[in-house]
Amino acid sequence: MNGVVVVSPHLDDAVFSAGATIAALGEVSVVTVFAGDPLPEQSTGWDRASGFSSSSEAMAARRDEDLAALDALGASAIHLGLLDNQYGGCSPEAVIESLHREIARLTPDLVIGPLGVGHPDHITTREALLADPPPCDLWLYADLPYCTYRWRGESRTHRRLRREGHHLDVAHPRLGNSQAKLTAIGRYRSQASLFKLDRLTVPERFWHVQPRRSAPVVHRARAAG
Ligand SMILES: [Zn+2]
């Protein structure tokens, strides 16, 4: 592929946190981790607040919104079938395996994932990327809107990652396309109204990560072979 993979915990995070940069980067695939449907279907407070009566209705509509939003940025969408924390979540190992498989298939030059602030699914996604780092450059993005009002959470996360042996430097991507990002945000019709727009349009921030050296993860498929 030789492009960029942006890892999005939910169907909107990559655009909210990195949409202007995605529009400027060229060949980008956005891989959304928690895009699966729970069985049997559920009805959660978040989905009701988003205007949906069931998880099936919510996830089908949100996947469509994501396709439309990423189309506005010229990026492609890949939806993994793992379950959002609000539907009961999934194991950290399942996230590691799914991301490993997708990144191995796409062979990007750069993977950009969440710093992991403000939501357990964001933390699980970051931890999966650091537990089994991709064989290419790795950046983390400031989670928007969470990092605009959880400064302590952001600085605590930085301190924790450095204490664990990961090295973080500020990354400077090329200037983003804010107008394209605004268009894309507007296509998440069910979600955008639940967040304050001015917290999604602050400057996007990124860090280049050199993950600590650790024993490689043994993947089930490889182990079986
Ligand atoms: Zn999210």
Structural write-up:
The chain is of the alpha/beta class and 225 residues long. It has eleven helices and seven strands. The longest helix is centred in the first third of the chain and has 19 residues. It has a single domain, classed as LmbE-like (Rossmann fold). The radius of gyration is 17 Å and the shape is globular. Helices cover 46% and strands 15% of the residues. The mean pLDDT is 93. Strands 3-2-1-4-5-7-6 form a seven-stranded mixed beta sheet, with helices on both faces. The chain binds zinc ion. Zinc ion binds next to helix 5. It comes from Gordonia polyisoprenivorans (strain DSM 44266 / VH2). GO terms for molecular function: hydrolase activity, acting on carbon-nitrogen (but not peptide) bonds, in linear amides. InterPro entries: GlcNAc_PI_deacetylase-related (IPR003737), LmbE-like_dom_sf (IPR024078). This is LmbE-like protein. One of its GO terms (biological process) is glycoside metabolic process.
